[in-house]
Amino acid sequence: MLTGKEYFYPYFRKSVLRLSEERLVVDIGTTCKFRKELAPFRKYFKKNYFALDYKSNAESPGDNVDIDSSIYCLPFKDNFIDAVLCLSVFEHLHDPFKAAFEIFRVLKPAGKAFITIPFISGEHAKKGDYGDFYRFTEQGIKYLFRGFSFVEAEPQGRGVYYRLSLFPGLLRIFQNRLGMRIVRSLDLKTTGRTTAAWMINLRK
Q: Contact 47/22 with Cβ under 8 angstroms?
């Protein structure tokens, strides 16, 4: 979970705020409204935000999802939604291609989506609830969302940040302004695109 102190957090924040200005935003695959990283952004979304999941969340009745449905069969007509949020969901899907097509289908022309997907991450299935099927490279992401006119995959921390994330106690030591400046400087010097996860901006 992001804390807001990460050096790449401004990209995440800018992406979410951009969607908050859209007329109709659907948060797909969340267990409750404004879950985890989205909590600080609740005030920016007015009555334009709706949460969707395949099951209701009895533990948070006040913040329960608005729509009970599957990402494989979204209950919207074609070209209907202005924007989609989908955070840390695609690794849990047995058919991510079908889900990508559904998101494309329901978005309006020039509609936007912001999606986060892991690249190097530990297995985190929940028995009896959801599985953990895939990890995605940048090339894989661009193929998965190849129907979109614009696909931008930004690393959620590069090699140095990823290695620190394997040791949460050590990472916490660096999660301050100076520490993140050091990590960012080291990350920019690393080769390749190693990352813990991707932040993806799409436009239909």
A: no
